[in-house]
């Protein structure tokens, strides 16, 4: 959309965190001051914290660290990298192009208008403050070989973030990342394919990087950001490149060793290991002690009846 082009140009002008008068912005973009004001309101609805001071103009609360394809590709090899600043959903973009994409293709966005999480939930996606990334991967071994893949992806992301200084990042079964018992990132894997044929996977990740408290008021659980988990927050292009590289390496490893090769790595990172939890399966609630995962990716839950594996459901700390 032409309007998006103008708005993105406006974002680029404001990204330095300095004041810019409406008149100067209008001259730069070839539109009126009134049009600038209207576009600013749209940008604010995208989650950008822009304020206006009489006589000085508009400014972002802080500088904006924008994604840049050239900067990412200077740090990692990628067969295809699409950076679409404003998109409905990075996962949907990739799903619509399955069959046309090379292995390891990536889509990144600054803002998702219809970002989605697990079980059809909405994924809150304010502009420029988080990381929204989807990767295409083909598993020639078929759909059955994708069992437990969200656990493998969780391990890859956690290890990548730890390599960047976020030492306390952990995984939560089956598809989240946590920092100090608060949600840091979510994983959504969507799959297409026929029985007996290759599985086409779109691996989506939403990572809270520097989202402001007021932006997350609609989130129905405790959440946190990489900014809090990392002593020195990495530049977002480095963050994207590191995640892309680690995902690619880990998926190649998974094809060779399967989930068996990741059980120990998962258990080392498990936020809930040996802690009392409750498992919600539909209307049923099972309480016990989390004992990691098995080679099928099932949660091992110890109760008075012993240790039982569970494939589905959601867990939380007992009492939460």
Q: Would you mind describing this structure in some detail?
A:
This protein has 320 residues and is an alpha+beta fold. It is 29% helix and 28% strand. The chain contains 9 helices and 16 strands. The chain has helices spanning 2-14, 22-29, 33-45, 69-73, 90-95, 149-163, 226-229, 236-257, 263-269; strands at 50-53, 57-60, 81-83, 86-87, 106-109, 111-112, 130-139, 169-172, 176-179, 182-192, 199-208, 276-281, 284-293, 299-303, 306-310, 314-317. The strands form 4 sheets. Strands 3-5-7-11-10-9-8 form a 7-stranded mixed β-sheet. Strands 15-14-13-12-16 form a 5-stranded antiparallel β-sheet. Helix 1 (2-14) crosses helix 3 (33-45).
Short description:
By secondary structure, the chain is an alpha+beta fold.
Write the layout of secondary structure elements.
Elements: H1 2-14, H2 22-29, H3 33-45, E1 50-53, E2 57-60, H4 69-73, E3 81-83, E4 86-87, H5 90-95, E5 106-109, E6 111-112, E7 130-139, H6 149-163, E8 169-172, E9 176-179, E10 182-192, E11 199-208, H7 226-229, H8 236-257, H9 263-269, E12 276-281, E13 284-293, E14 299-303, E15 306-310, E16 314-317
Parallel strand pairs: 3-5, 4-6
Antiparallel strand pairs: 1-2, 5-7, 7-11, 8-9, 9-10, 10-11, 12-13, 12-16, 13-14, 14-15
Helix pairs in contact: 1-3, 2-3, 6-8
**Helical content (DSSP H or I, runs of 4+):** 25-40%
Terminal CA distance reads: 44 Å
Rg for CA atoms:
21 Å
Q: Which series of helices and strands comes N to C?
A: HHHEEHEEHEEEHEEEEHHHEEEEE
Strand fraction equals 25-35%
Judged by helices, strands and strand pairing, the structural class is: alpha+beta
* Lateral arrangement of strands in the main beta sheet: 3-5-7-11-10-9-8
Round the mean pLDDT to the nearest integer and report it: 91
Total E-strand runs: 16
Largest sheet: 7 strands, mixed
Number of helices: 9
